[in-house]
Amino acid sequence: MKCGIVIPAAGRGRRMGANVNKQFIPLDGKPILIHTLEKFSRLPWVDEIVIVSHPDEITIMEQLVQQYGIQRVKAIVPGGKERQDSIYNGLTFLETEYVMVHDGARPFVKQTHLEQLWQTVQKIGAVALGVPVKDTIKIVDQDGFIQSTPDRKSLWAIQTPQAFRLSILRMAYEEAKKDRFLGTDDSSLVERLGMKVMVVEGDYHNIKITTPEDLILAESILKHWSEEV
Ligand SMILES: Nc1ccn([C@@H]2O[C@H](COP(=O)(O)OP(=O)(O)OP(=O)(O)O)[C@@H](O)[C@H]2O)c(=O)n1
Ligand SMILES: C[C@](O)(CO)[C@H](O)COP(=O)(O)O
């Protein structure tokens, strides 16, 4: 059994406010995206990697992949307006039985968690990495008033990778496209088909680098947990 990896990296990084795609920002001298790609490129069960890039950055991506010797990159393909559009396009280039979708902006996913996801997706067919939330979460209305407080015991902050049997994810993406449904992750597209998605507990290092504060946290993670991430 082999797995294909789709790395959505075609965003504009608006919340980062940098004048460059946040995935090219260096961490310990290496672009964030390369840290991410290195987590997958040597795994024995990874058959092919598809990187989804902003159309204007495909050449840069090709140069980085070559410069850092990233293995198993099958294609670097153009993304779309939304993350969902980018992944939809990336999926069309895969020929594996399983797929793992992982944000290019999450450089610290652990190998142990990737292995757990790989074992689980072969049994369950749909799985996502996540962590229990630490804050109390509130549902707030458009006027800024709290409507409800969900029981924190049942709340998880879902990350990536999210892994699926490829046929399941393709069907979910087609249904979402037909229904014009836009989700913020891949699992929500599978859930809306009425299918169960399992959560594997990861850890709090697996941050998505989104705003400037995350760069400070990322440097600290790399400095204090470099052997683990
Ligand atoms: N149209 C898009 C939007 C996002 N992504 C990717 O999806 C991942 C998670 O998205 P996010 O962190 O929101 O990145 P951006 O969309 O770039 O950030 P922002 O919303 O701040 O612009 C990132 O690796 C990003 O590059 C993508 O491939 N295509
Ligand atoms: C997919 C994701 O990383 C799960 O937490 C998150 O939903 C991506 O959100 P973004 O706004 O596209 O970064």
Automatic annotation (TrEMBL):
Keywords: Isoprene biosynthesis, Nucleotidyltransferase, Transferase. Its EC number is 2.7.7.60. InterPro entries: IspD, IspD/TarI, IspD/TarI_cytidylyltransf_bact, ISPD_synthase_CS, Nucleotide-diphossugar_trans. Pathway: Isoprenoid biosynthesis; isopentenyl diphosphate biosynthesis via DXP pathway; isopentenyl diphosphate from 1-deoxy-D-xylulose 5-phosphate: step 2/6. CDD domains: CDP-ME_synthetase. It holds the Pfam family IspD. The record marks 152, 208 as: Positions MEP for the nucleophilic attack. One of its GO terms (molecular function) is 2-C-methyl-D-erythritol 4-phosphate cytidylyltransferase activity. PROSITE patterns: ISPD (PS01295). SUPFAM superfamilies: Nucleotide-diphospho-sugar transferases (SSF53448). The record marks 15, 22 as: Transition state stabilizer. It catalyses: 2-C-methyl-D-erythritol 4-phosphate + CTP + H(+) = 4-CDP-2-C-methyl-D-erythritol + diphosphate. GO terms for biological process: isopentenyl diphosphate biosynthetic process, methylerythritol 4-phosphate pathway. Belongs to the IspD/TarI cytidylyltransferase family. IspD subfamily. Catalyzes the formation of 4-diphosphocytidyl-2-C-methyl-D-erythritol from CTP and 2-C-methyl-D-erythritol 4-phosphate (MEP). PANTHER family: 2-C-METHYL-D-ERYTHRITOL 4-PHOSPHATE CYTIDYLYLTRANSFERASE, CHLOROPLASTIC. This is 2-C-methyl-D-erythritol 4-phosphate cytidylyltransferase. It comes from Tepidibacillus fermentans. The lineage of its organism: Bacteria, Bacillati, Bacillota, Bacilli, Bacillales. The gene is ispD.
